[in-house]
Each structure stands twice: as structure tokens, then as C-alpha cells.
Amino acid sequence: GEPHTAVLQRTTCPYCGVGCGVEIVSNDGGATLAVRGDAAHPANKGRLCSKGSALADSLTLPHRLTQPLKGDQPLSWDAALEEITARLKAVLADHGPEAVAFYGSGQLLTEDYYVLNKLGKGFIGTANVDTNSRLCMASTVAGHKQSFGADTVPGLYEDWEQADLVILVGSNTAWCHPVLFQRLLAARQSRGTKIVVLDPRQTSTTAEADLHLPLRSGSDIALFGGLLRAIADAGALNDAYLTAHTNGADTALAVAPDLPAVAAATGLSPVQIAAFYRLFIETPKVVTVFSQGVNQSSHGSTTVSAILNVHLATGRIGTPGCGPFSVTGQPNAMGGREVGGLANQLAAHMDFASADDRDRVRRFWGAPRLAEAPGLKAVDLFQALVDGKIKFLWILATNPLASLPDANLAREALAQCPTVILSDAICDTETARYAHFLLPAATWGEKDGTVTNSERRISRQRAFRAPLGDAKPDWWALAQIGRRLGYADAFAYDRSADIFREHAALSGFENQGRRDFDLSGAIGLSDTDYDALAPFCWPWKAGEAPGASRFFAEGGFFTPDRRARLVPTPMTATASSTSLAFPLVLNTGRVRDQWHTMGRTGFDPRLMAHLPRPTVALNPRDAATLGIAEGDLVQVTSATGAMLRLAEVTDKQPSGEVFASMHWNGAWCGGGAVGRVIAPHVDPLSGQPELKYTPVAVSRL
Ligand code: SF4
């Protein structure tokens, strides 16, 4: 008979922003756990990718942190929390709240994020609460807010299946959001969807494309600016939508480049570009999916605006099969955005810039020291550490020494900070070596809470086993500090449901349709309701049933005049350019079976078997010029630093560009971390670093 019959728990995959539902099942004896796709979850309808399918193999992680440590000395939670609180109080007394910072992660659950944000911004009084989401989708947040007045993803996953044209921009969707890609391919079978992929490289995604545009890295801004002009020239502007619901079309059009300028910037032929423009103009149902290739750029937020512009200009937004669509990397990057877990956000889609919002949040929390202005974004935060301005740093669920640009500077930053606390599930990361206190965090399968996927769908992550050793949920440790600072009532949470209800209440507090993010329908959830909560897309307004809905088909933007803004997007160069010394462009990204800095996937032999070595891919022509052969040990050098990799010579890589995966780091291969090579150039609006364009030289060792 069936070997796996009993469903023990239903939860959500911890890996990516697709947010697939999984079932934890046991065999007849109950001894062995297995994981399978949850057929009832709307995000994946039973599907899983290679990483999700392997989840059961990673339940026993090596190097688990099972008790608090000070240096390498174990201590009780009580002793650790007492000492951390004493150090925090001393820093506050001597240097003020700006000397305190938190650096979190899109891996945190929404409830962890909520308590982190509340403690930092409301009760300690520091807005230095940033996360690794800054490296992931901060430019989308900035772009959404500029155009829509709020960080709103207008559409739903089903739009991918209802579109006749899906444009994938800067995304190897087949590897990075595999289940969404499977859904798209299945829809294509039945409706003949056209797929256009914009990517300098040939990938598993471009292999499925009807049209692949191998544009130069960093030039997508020109391609979409030119598309706006082409739409206008073809008489395809949606004048009714523009007139009723937008401002700024003329200003945006005034700087839109013409076809020869787009061809010069992108390296594409005018024929290729015109074919793409024609397809867009002639296909009413279009979804434009964009991801890290757009975000991780020194002009990422403007490129996002260029993409939003063409959808606003054609009124193709918020209706079935239409809209711009950002896909997030991390499982809960969206939940973090909802909570306000970035240094330039306040809380629940409320802003520092608004005195009313600040007053609202202060009153709701009963906050004694609400931060009044945005704090330091990730790259600036680590620079402030180097400058000695931050004296107390608490890092949660991330490994910045492996993921931040200019890894050498980040190392110096941590080495200088008098108090570094790391909450993590594992203890052998590079960052852990610099932490004065290590706090054991409960991990996937052990903790309860919610996550939000890329279509605004909130799903429960449910525990199905006890935390290992003394591991605790992150919200618990943060709340303990809040209580020890004297705010027992504000942090009197007994379980994650308490926090979710408060989060829902804040989202609805004096909202009245002012803000897109509204969970007021969830305020009255009982503990049992919360445990049984079925996946739903926000908004969930009081008095209404939760249901999947789209935004902006009839306008209703969240700007003061309720109109969208078309933002001018002049062609913009990358922060640095190639030179005789650094003639190649380094692009970075993920590979199919690894996740982040390999803290979980790296321990699974099945997943490691896919691409087991840290490589740098380069075109055969470049390899021949440099005297490099397949498998050679090479040094990749930039103005910032150097790393070692093994050469992979492939004609899938365009000449003039090289590619290295982001996952490998010092814990796995001493010289392999890409962060050593990448300069900390950021988008001026979003603060997101340019991880996709670094001039480098490659030489054989
Ligand atoms: Fe998990 Fe993402 Fe794969 Fe779904 S697509 S199973 S969420 S890694």
C-alpha cells in the first residue's frame, strides 16, 4: 500500500518567495517524516521544486545551535538576556538609540519581524532596523511607492496563467521560482502563451522562451523607456486610463529614448527590439515579471518605474492576465515589507515622512521613544559600524559576512562593534565567528507563524516538532528584551497568534481605505482560527471574507490625489564601467538547488550533486583570450577585492560577461565568496546594492 499515509501537519516551504504549501507526512510507524506538495495550497497546487522536495532530508541540520553561548561558553537564556539587556541599556545611556542596530532577514516569520520592528523603532527608539531584504527587493519597494503611493503588488499568480504574453525580466525563473515557472509552462500548453525573456545569459528559462533578448547587463531601463515611446508612437496609449487615473505621462514620455538609442544601450538589434515592442503593443493581456536582475542595480528603482510606466500607460494593470509583477527571493520578504521591517519604513505600510502616521503608530503601540526618521540602510549601516557609530548590533537569521557587498569591510565592521548578537539556528557561519552572544533560534518545522509570498498570500508556517535543545522563536527572545527594558505589557506575548492579531489590528488602525495593507478582518481570530488559517491574499478588511483580489483596475492608488504617477526614467549608466584593468562584467545569481549561503541546502548530498563546485562561467572566446581552460583555478579580481573560482567555459555566457553564483562563501570555500569582489554601490533611492554589474579581471592561477 501507500507508504506515507498520515498527514501530520500542513505548512509552507521555507525557501523562496513562491510560498508553496507542503504537507508533512509520516509512514505507518510514524518514525520517518516525508514532505510532499499540498494539493490544496493555491500557490503550488501540489507541485514542489527540487529544493522543496528535499526538505525532509534537511530536518537534521549539522552544527545546530542548541543553547545560548557567550563566546564559546554556554549560559542560560536568563543569564544571556540579562547581560544583553545590561549592555543595551549602557549603550542607550552613553550613546543614545542611534548607536543600536538590528539586521534581520526575509527568512524571519512575520511575527518575529513584527516584534523586531516594534522593539527597535517604538521602544528603543532606533530606526536602524534593516534586513537582507535590502539586497533583494528594496528597489521594487521604492518603485512601487513612487508610482502607486504604496508598496502594492497589483496582481496574482493566476495572472501568469491568464496572460497571452509573459515577459520575464532579469529572472532565471526556471531555477529561482521553479513552481511558478511550471505553472506558466502548463498554461502555455493550453493557451499558447508567448514567453519573452530579457537576460544577458542563456539559462534554463531562456531555453523555453519564444523570444530571448540577450541585452547588456544594466540596460533594461533603456528597453522599457523605449517601449513607452513605441507605445505612444503606435497610438496605443490608453488615454482613458491615463486621464482618469494617472499623472506624469507627458514628463515620462519626454525622456523616453528612441529606437536607435535603445539599440545602442542594450546591444540588441533594432529588429529584435521592434519585434518585442510589437508583441507588447499587440497583446492586450501582458504580465511583466521582474526580479533581481532589475532590483540589484544602482538604478533598480528607476527600472522598476520604467516597467510600471508601460503597464500604466496601457491600463494593463489589476485585471486578469495583466500587470507588472515583482517576484521576491525570500520566503517572507513580503511579510517583512508589510510589518515595516526596513530602515526607511515605519510600520504596516505607514511612513516616517507622515507626522500623522508617526502619531498613529506611537499611540497604537504606546511607544515611549518612537524613532522619528528613517534609519541606516544595510550598506550604510555596516559603514556606520566601521566608523564606530554603532555600538550594539543584533543580527537575526542571516549571514551578512557572506552576503553583503564588500565582504572585507563587513568583516572589519563586525570586528569593531563592542556587542554583536547573532540569533541563528546554526553556529558555524562566518558571521557567528564575530558574535559575542549566539542565541539559538528555532528553525523551520519548530516554529509557528506566518509568511507572505509574492502574490500577497499569507500562509501559516506550522511547527511539527519540538525546538532542538534550548532553541526559541526569535519573537520570544526579542520580547524578553522588551520586558526586561521595563515594557512588560507591550511585549506580553504568549504565542505567535497574539502577535499576528496585534499586527492585524495595527494594519487596520485608523485606516479607512488610506492604506493598501489592511488585515483588519483578522483582528478577531481565535487561537484555533489562527492555527487553522487557510492561505489568503491581503487585503482582508473587517467585515469581509478573505479573498484574492487585485489592485488598481479602477485606479484607487495610494498617493494623496489617488492617482498613479508615471515617473521619468532617463537612460542611466551603471555605477561603474569596465576598463583596461577590469574588462569583464561580473553578474551574480542563484543556481537551481542551492539557497542563500547554503546553510540548509549545502548539507543535502542530493542538492549538492547538481552543481557541486564554486565556478565562474565565461564565454569560450574570453577563455581563449585569457588562456583559461575548463576547470582551471582562476582568480576573479575587482577594484574591491578578489575571489578564487573554478572556470566553467560555456557559450551560454555572453562574451564580455562572467557569472558566479552567490551561494558559496567562506564557510564552504575560503576564497570563493562573491561579496569580496562586489563594490558597495547602491541605488540612491532604495539603497539596494548593485550585485549584477561589477567590472572584473579573470586570470588563471
Ligand atoms: Fe519551495 Fe520555492 Fe521550490 Fe516552492 S518553488 S518548493 S517555495 S523553493
TrEMBL record:
Keywords: 4Fe-4S, Iron, Iron-sulfur, Metal-binding, Molybdenum, Nitrate assimilation, Oxidoreductase. GO terms for molecular function: 4 iron, 4 sulfur cluster binding; metal ion binding; molybdopterin cofactor binding; oxidoreductase activity. Belongs to the prokaryotic molybdopterin-containing oxidoreductase family. NasA/NapA/NarB subfamily. It comes from Elstera cyanobacteriorum. Its cofactor is Mo-bis(molybdopterin guanine dinucleotide); [4Fe-4S] cluster. One of its GO terms (biological process) is nitrate assimilation. This is 4Fe-4S Mo/W bis-MGD-type domain-containing protein. One of its GO terms (cellular component) is membrane. Residues 6-63 form the 4Fe-4S Mo/W bis-MGD-type domain.
